[in-house]
Design a protein that fits this description.
CATH topology: Rossmann fold
CATH superfamily: Thiamin diphosphate (ThDP)-binding fold, Pyr/PP domains
Strand content: 5-15%
Order of helices and strands: HHEHHEEHEHEEEEHEHHH
Oligomer: single chain
Number of domains: 1
Shape: globular
Largest sheet: 7 strands, mixed
Low-confidence stretches: none
Number of strands: 9
Mean pLDDT: 94
Length: 329
């Protein structure tokens, strides 16, 4: 499949932006938490789940989406939000708990919502799938060609919401795409110890729908299968499952001692980094000059740095105003 240079450059820019964003967040999150780790301390309190290494899953499908399409995300949401076009300033302010955030600082990292681009994040395992199902049903009822994408981890494929939602999506022939990011671990449990099938795309057969599998965290393959799944959904040909073999370079959460996996595992994964692979492809096959890619990278860095400055310089919400945004009937 021929991929346009514009799409490849969009994917590279957003993968780089996501990686730089997560690296900055990892740094900011440690402030005030050392020498003894304290989850509630520092400018970014609470649990923090970063998506470093999982960038292809987000950009490979979001490159095919439009503003009217819905995306739901789990507790590891930053890469999905960035790829869907969530306002970076407001998103970062929300994570820092500031009043300029998407939810005025009341939702935080695991509850990011941006109705302007139809993005939401539930935080609970598998919770976003029924919401995406509802969006897909609404699109069909309205006669629109919109699609709904729900990102989940491989552990969520064992939740009831996964099976119930896919059964209804298949029964009603809805434009729902469930993207399973198989990063090999459900918290600290390896997939081989929790799931009876080698890959969850085979479960599509149980519902009579399409299933796709993307090997080795490959952004090009993710682009190709996502294009087919999105086009099928827009044509009214029903739901799909996509499972991508991906890898998180960091722990389940920041501060995770990661006693369940060999530290050499991460080093081996970084040796085949998808951002480096895509950069090399752009240079060798698209004849993109390294200097042009440097410009793209610097642009992404500036955008992220500006968002962090915006968040840090914003005010915290007044606790006395905590109930002001509630609607009372």
């Amino acid at each position: 499949m021929a991929i346009s240079k514009n799409d490849l450059l969009w994917m590279y820019e957003n993968m780089y932006k996501i990686r730089y964003y997560e690296d900055k967040m990892a740094e900011a999150y440690t402030e005030g938490k050392n020498p003894v780790f304290n989850i509630g301390a520092g400018p970014v309190p609470g649990e923090m789940h970063l998506a470093t290494g999982q960038e292809p899953a987000a950009v490979g499908i979001c490159v095919h989406l439009k503003k009217e399409d819905t995306v739901t995300s789990p507790h590891r949401p930053h890469h999905h939000a960035i790829a869907k076009g969530v306002d970076l300033n407001k998103m970062t302010a929300e994570i820092f708990g500031k009043e300029t955030g998407l939810g005025k600082g009341k939702g935080g990292h695991m509850h990011l919502f941006d109705p302007d681009v139809k993005f939401s994040c539930g935080g609970i395992v598998g919770a976003g799938i029924p919401h995406a199902l509802g969006a897909a049903l609404a699109a069909k009822k309205k006669g629109k060609d919109w699609v709904a994408v729900s990102f989940i981890g491989e552990g969520a494929a064992n939740q009831g919401a996964f099976h119930e939602s896919l059964n209804m999506a298949a029964l009603w022939n809805l434009p729902l795409i469930v993207v399973i990011e198989n990063n090999q671990y459900g918290i600290s449990v390896p997939k081989t110890a929790s799931t009876s099938v080698a890959s969850n795309d085979v479960r599509a057969a149980a519902y009579g729908i399409k299933g796709y599998y993307v090997k080795d965290n490959d952004p090009i393959s993710m682009y190709e299968v996502s294009k087919e799944a999105v086009e099928r959904a827009r044509r009214g040909e029903g739901p799909s499952i996509i499972e991508i073999e991906t890898y998180r370079y960091l722990g389940h959460f920041q501060g995770d001692p990661e006693l369940y996996r060999d530290k050499n595992e991460v080093s081996l994964l970084r040796d085949k980094d998808p951002i480096v692979r895509l950069r090399n492809l752009l240079i060798s096959e698209q004849n993109i000059a390294e200097n042009d890619l440097d410009i793209i990278e610097n642009k992404a860095k500036q955008e992220v740095d500006a968002a962090y400055q915006f968040a840090r310089s914003s005010n915290y919400p007044n606790p006395e105003d905590a109930l002001n945004d509630l609607y009372v009937s």
